[in-house]
Structure formats: C-alpha cells, structure tokens
Amino acid sequence: MKKLVTQVLVIVLLIGLPTFFIMNFGDYSSTGSVTNQNAVIRLDRLDVYLSFPVPIYNPILKKLSEEARNFLRAGARDNFYGPNRLRAGDSFFSNENALFVDLVKLSCIKHVGTIAKGSFVTPGGIQIMMPGNTFFNVDYDELSKLPCDVAVIPKAEQAIGKVLQLDALLVKSTIESSSCPEQASENYILATQSMAVGNVENALINLHVAWSKAANCK
C-alpha cells in the first residue's frame, strides 16, 4: 500500500513542476525551436549567462560577477545535458553550489525581522531562507559587508529564480527516465517545498540527492 501511494505521488509530481512551488521565483518559459526539453533548458541557461552584467568600477563586484558568469557558463556545458536526463550530476551540483553563493552575495539580501529567524529578502522581494544565518557556510556577517549595485541586483535575483527552476526541470527529466523514480520522489518533493519558502540551499541539496537516487538506482 505504501509503495502504491509513493508511486501515485511520483506520477502526480512528474506531471509538471507545481506552479505554487515556483511562484516565489517568477515565471518559467522556454523559447526557440529546439524540441528536446533539456536542449531548451541549456539554451535558457546560456541566456542567463550572456545577460549577466560585470561592473568594472568596483573590483569586488567585478570579481564576484565574473565568477558568477563563469559558473553560469560552466553549468551550460553540453556534456551535462543528456536528451532525457542530467549527466555528471555530482560535478554539476558542485558548480551550482558555488554559483548560488555568488548570486546570493550579489543580490544584496537584508534581514526580515530578527536575526534569529534566518529570513531574508532581496531588494526585489525574493525571499531567501538562511537557517543559522549561513548560506553554504558563508555567514551573513560576510554577506552584509559586500557592496551592492543597482544594475547587478535584479540580474542576480532573476538568475537565482531562473537557474533554480531550470535545475529542478533537469532533475525532473532524470526522474522521469529513471527505472526507479519512486526512490527520488521524496527528495524532489522536499526540494520543491524548499523552493516555495526560499530555502535555496536546502533545495539544491535535495535536488542533488534526488538526481543521485534517480540516476544511480539498479
């Protein structure tokens, strides 16, 4: 009975990425004539990379923005994008973790309420949860000392939402093509729930675990 319930959950889950899970990050849309979804995801990722600005007046912001662009480009390498699954997911998510640290740094987050809540928001209203006031071991005190740039902030915000959605779709395609999708369903659900509340770190961790379970099952 439990297995049947799990299988039903997987089917419902894989019909589509639930809209309310991703509303916090804006709309997702694919453009172009490429018919393979993962090829379209890669093109969308390249669009984020190409549009990401690099300010030259401040050496700290310049370095961070260049790093973010490099991580955006690295995550668009064609060897990651199989026709029906994410390949080399360990390397892919190692890149993503480093990318999102830079994106959070560039998004100029501020506390909402008391520091103990771990709740933050970007100038554009993107919610970011940081339990313990850290993001992949980067403390908020370090983040709060970074300069902000009005041209970079909206691009960093857009990249956080867009890339996280694209990553979720890549993992979704891997689960759909897996011989044991039920093994990955719990972590995928946890990832989408984390996306809904802005816990980006937890979302990335669970997407990575979901990919691993879907890709490596026997």
Explain what you see.
By secondary structure, this protein is mainly alpha-helical. The chain is about 60% helix and about 5% strand. The protein has helices spanning about 1-15, 20, 35-50, 60-75, 90-105, 140-145, 150-175, 180-195, 200-215; strands at about 110, 120, 125-130, 135, 140. The strands form two sheets. Strands 1-2-3 form a three-stranded antiparallel β-sheet, with no helix packed on it. Strands 4-5 form a two-stranded antiparallel sheet. A hairpin with a 2-residue loop joins strand 4 and strand 5. Helix 5 (about 90-105) packs antiparallel against helix 9 (about 200-215) and helix 7 (about 150-175) packs antiparallel against helix 8 (about 180-195). The protein is globular and about 50 Å long. The two termini are about 20 Å apart. Mean pLDDT is about 85; it is low at about 5-10, about 20-25 and about 25-35.
The proportion of residues in beta strands is 5-15%
How would you classify the helix and strand content by structural class? Answer: mainly alpha
* Helix share bin: 55-70%
Mean pLDDT: 86
Largest sheet: 3 strands, antiparallel
- The spatial strand order of the largest sheet comes to 1-2-3
Q: Using the alpha-carbon principal axes, give the shape.
A: globular
Radius of gyration: 17 Å
In the predicted model, the low-confidence regions spanning at least 5 consecutive residues are 4-9, 18-24, 26-34
